[in-house]
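Schema walk-through. Below, the input block comes first and the output block second. Nothing else is stored per chain. Lengths vary across the set, and this one has 87 residues.
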Amino acid sequence: MSYSGPPYQSGPPPANDSNTLSIVGIVLGTIAFIFCPPGFGIAGIICGVVAKSKQERLAPTAIGVSIAGLVLGTVLGVLVFRGMYGG
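--- output ---
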């Protein structure tokens, strides 16, 4: 007599309950808006992408905020630099 268990069902892995990397990415993206956009912006994007690979719920928000912080922080820096040095 053979035992037949329930059929094996393959599906997507469950979403990660932790949002730690996503929150770190959001914070880094926010800091990038005011202070050192290339450094903090790129670090925030990396945290967001890693969080997305771990299927964290807030990962797309972290990526968006980091990209916005990088772009807007760079534009703000250029405008402030031009205003200070008249270039």
